[in-house]
């Protein structure tokens, strides 16, 4: 997804609004299955895998051409204080491929921890059929949930990297330069992680918590994009601190 797509005025909405978006006509080389069909396949896979849905959230870009959904399922993965979420995206204007990704949600603060990779990316080519979407949705969601333990270990492992005031300041400056942290949010972020009444510990786990808290009120498409950048940034920070 491009920066231009991020700026397309996406807004949060309910599932009904997503389903109301029409499906374009097919051509010989392009089968743009609508959001409605993709959601049907997703819910069918969730039912087949006997998952219990806790919450669902959606966002649509301007004119509804691009959709991102986040479906939170009941914790059955041994992750204390967290639920697993299935991210699903779709486009009917060739902006992006159909895809599924894994997201952890911290129940207490509603922050999200996103895997940086999609387990399935399928273009809407002329040979794409709905039966394939239904089959791949099951496989993709199974693969998404297999990442739960590893992603949880990654998230908890960030606690091992404490930050001195100097290293915290340097990392904060780097985060702003990389556009992971908006300069306008600096004081709020500093208060969350380094202030006298900080909500988070001054380590990489807390740094990550502060970054994700500042974006949790955005639409789901922006959160998905920014969380992937945050995950990549934290991986770089871990490498620097080793």
What coarse outline follows from CA principal-axis ratios? elongated
Tally of separate domains: 2
Number of helical segments with 4 or more residues: 9
* Spans where pLDDT lies below 50 across 5 or more residues: 1-7
Q: Give the mean pLDDT.
A: 89
Q: Helical residue percent?
A: 40-55%
Neighbour order of strands in the largest sheet: 1-2-3-4-5-6
Main sheet makeup: 6 strands, antiparallel
For the CA atoms, what is the radius of gyration?
19 Å
- DSSP strand content: 15-25%
Order of helices and strands: HEHHEEEEEHHHHHH
Number of strands: 6
Keywords:
242 residues, 6-stranded antiparallel beta sheet, elongated, 9 helices, 2 domains, alpha+beta
Structure description:
- By secondary structure, this protein is an alpha+beta fold.
- The chain folds into two domains: 3-147, no CATH class; 155-241, no CATH class.
- Helices cover 43% and strands 20% of the residues.
- The chain contains nine helices and six strands.
- It has helices at 3-6, 15-19, 35-48, 130-146, 148-157, 165-177, 186-193, 204-213, 220-241, and strands spanning 11-13, 53-60, 66-73, 82-91, 98-106, 112-122.
- A hairpin with a 6-residue loop joins β4 (82-91) and β5 (98-106).
- α3 crosses α4 and α7 packs across α8 (204-213).
- The protein is elongated.
